[in-house]
């Protein structure tokens, strides 16, 4: 015992005073002294074995740092979307050009499989290298986007049938999209790593909620900022935020390196974290759980993100909402996610029912888009209520869907599993805005009472309703497969 204590950082000396003629007292004193030494040794050993993420303050602090990076990414992703009408009036963009620009976010991820490569890099090189790389790509992409909206705004040169300003801005948005999506899967794996066996679903919900602050601010402030200065001002502010987000992730990397050192020095640590082989891709693709999660992801998010890109114009044109607050109304789902996603994540952590929650969210989405498609319903308060309901649905599904992935795949496959899911999601994020822009230009142009050009959104909203119905069917199939395969999607994450 003495030799053990000699190797500890603190030395505790316990003096046993014996009383002459009191053998019973000496016996109990000896027992108490040795018990105290043993207890102190256990406490010291526990302190030595305590990892950085065992501290609630440290793991939640790490989450706050990486969440700022994602907050900046979400701001840039959404900040130009409320400006569709201004882009048409000031820069002479068409709905097709806007749809191409909006869909460019996912172009490289879909056609060059950049998300897949990003996932492989993540599983091979870890969260620090991949996160810093993605932050740099986001900054470069946003800078190119700004250049296209300013220096080339009046350039009539054609590139692949589009004006150079549109094409360069779209190219910048595509590069930014690679960085943002890879950052998304990286931060998701960061949470799975730092919160394993702890409040994982709650942490994922909080991260999504904090990121949605960026979206809400973007929707609320884009039009006022563009009116007050220049149409490119919102993206310039976003670029500055991304620079701050890049610095934040470099700070997190220092914390994560310390955690890795602690894991490596722990002989009982699970060394499965960063190991990966190409054969795991086949295993992921063979999982029915993967395909159902991926299909639910692409269908559900295709009903939300592409819709939000056109929602400001819908609010103004159909429901008569003032353009200064139309973006705020369009951003209400992000505001709802800010409050509700952590709450629903906590429910998943403590009570489970993840598959059922995903079904409920998909069902709510059907109702929202169906009512939006009704031509005779034009009251502004209806549009606002529907956006609030959309925000609830938008909080339900992600709070259950993303924590479900670590239940299906081991840690060393998570990066690639998330990357493949995000890759399939990006098919919808590219295709649906492009489709909606084309549909608007070819089937939905109307002449307003003042002779101006407008759009009838009935057909686009029917398309969104159909996608929502499909997402509901996939969520139902996922619940059935969960019962057969035993993924545990209905089981609480925190086991008592």
Protein topology:
Elements (H helix, E strand, L loop, with lengths): L1 H5 L16 H27 L6 H23 L5 H7 L4 H10 L2 H5 L2 H37 L7 E2 L2 E2 H31 L5 H29 L4 H32 L14 H7 L2 H15 L2 H15 L3 H8 L1 H20 L2 H20 L6 H29 L5 H30 L1 E3 L5 E3 L2 H28 L11
Antiparallel strand pairs: 1-2, 3-4
Helix pairs in contact: 3-8, 3-9, 3-10, 5-8, 5-18, 7-8, 7-10, 7-18, 8-18, 9-14, 9-15, 9-17, 12-17, 12-18, 12-19, 13-14, 13-18, 15-17, 16-17, 16-19
Distance between the termini: 35 Å
Please report the number of helical segments.
Answer: 19
Calculate the mean pLDDT score and round it: 84
Structural class: mainly alpha
Largest sheet: 2 strands, antiparallel
The CATH architecture of the largest domain: Up-down Bundle
Count of structural domains? 2
The string of secondary-structure elements, in order, is HHHHHHHEEHHHHHHHHHHHEEH
Structure description:
The structure is a single chain. This protein is mainly α. The chain folds into two domains: 2-43; 57-260 and 276-485, Growth Hormone, Chain: A (Up-down Bundle). Helices cover 76% and strands 2% of the residues. It has 19 helices and four strands. It has helices spanning 2-6, 23-49, 56-78, 84-90, 95-104, 107-111, 114-150, 164-194, 200-228, 233-264, 279-285, 288-302, 305-319, 323-330, 332-351, 354-373, 380-408, 414-443, 458-485, and strands at residues 158-159, 162-163, 445-447, 453-455. The strands form two sheets. Strands 1-2 form a two-stranded antiparallel ribbon. α9 (200-228) packs antiparallel against α17 (380-408). The two termini are 35 Å apart. The model is unreliable at 1-21 and 40-48 (pLDDT under 50).
